[in-house]
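Batch job 17 of 40 flagged for manual review because the log was empty.
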Amino acid sequence: MSAFDDAFESTVKREEASGEHSADRGGATAYGITEAVARKEGYTGAMSELPLETAKEIYQHRYWRPLRLEAIAEVSQPVALKLFDTALSMGVGSAAKFLQRSLNALNRQQADYQDMTVDGAIGPKTVAAFHSFITKRKPQGEMVMLKAISSLQGARYIEIAESRDQNEAFVFDWLATRV
């Protein structure tokens, strides 16, 4: 089973098959995919009938590939899975920025690798810095990176709840299951 398959399976287990919450601006969902996202990806049917295989294709196309998570998973599958989950709940750009910010803060004043622009796009420079970080910091580095990303993710959830009262309906679950 590939790292993506593991990430997808974990996501599908956590997300309801379909549903709708009155406070959710995304509308109806299926397997954690909002109707707006499904429509952008070309799905036109009822969300309650979204095929699992279509959900898998959307997740791979919209979240896994843009974050270059296959390259991240080669070094650390747990970090790849964390970035994937972060992207699902707050966007690819946020997940990428969390990794880039963490790498910049953890590079020992550029002794291990150069700072990178925090642009929300994982390219070869971000992947190379991540590989270098894990190589130099070993297993403890993986744990620290997971904590750094989770910390940024948790802080962002609080900001999201502070910015829109209706999001308070979700913040407890977000923090309990995703951070």
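Reviewer: the log was empty due to a logging misconfiguration, but the result itself is present. The two ends are 25 Å apart (CA to CA). Unflagging and moving on to job 18.
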